[in-house]
Design goal:
Distance between the termini: 51 Å
Largest sheet: none
Order of helices and strands: HHHHHHH
Oligomer: single chain
Structural class: mainly alpha
Number of domains: 2
Number of strands: 0
Helix content: over 70%
Shape: globular
Strand content: under 5%
Number of helices: 7
């Protein structure tokens, strides 16, 4: 079950962050059309391609999770992708979030852990209570740390790849 939870979180993050990268990549591209120059521009835009590939990998991870766990477990956890998207948007898109937003993101992460714990019948010995704070800390570090690192890397890459399409 925990493997499915991790796959779902990774898939939701890939879908959400991939779409943001594709959207960000289109800011320097012309509207999509069947002109060869435009299609080549999309194909050569690293930011757009990175977003596309991340989105596809996220979809593959989500399908893998669905093959291993019931939809009633996978779908609520996939909703946590919005929390991941919020953290990523804060660091990459420089969106400002207030304290209530951060509380909501934390609750979404904790809810994901709760669904993972409660989604399958388990013995009490298998989940020691002292390990739950470590699990929560790990989720917070992964959400904030990886989003901040990815955002700074992508901002540097975007600055290097500015192209004039006129």
């Amino acid at each position: 079950m925990w493997e499915s939870v991790a796959l779902t979180l990774a898939g939701a993050a890939g879908n959400s962050i991939g779409k943001v990268l594709q959207k960000k990549g289109t800011h320097i591209l012309p509207p999509l059309s069947f002109k060869l120059k435009v299609i080549r521009g999309y194909a050569l835009n690293r930011l757009w391609i990175s977003g596309f590939l991340l989105d596809m990998c996220g979809a593959a991870l989500m399908l893998t999770a669905l093959s291993q766990a019931p939809v009633s477990v996978v779908q609520p956890i996939a909703g946590c992708g919005l929390a991941i998207l919020c953290v990523f948007s804060h660091f990459y898109l420089k969106e400002v979030m207030n304290g209530l937003d951060w509380i909501a993101i934390t609750m979404a992460g904790l809810g994901t852990i709760g669904v993972g714990v409660g989604g399958e019948e388990q013995k009490v010995e298998e989940i020691p209570l002292f390990s739950i704070p470590w699990l929560v800390l790990t989720v917070v570090i992964l959400f904030v740390g990886s989003a901040q690192h990815l955002a700074s890397y992508l901002q540097k890459a975007e600055a290097r790849t500015r192209v004039d399409w006129t």
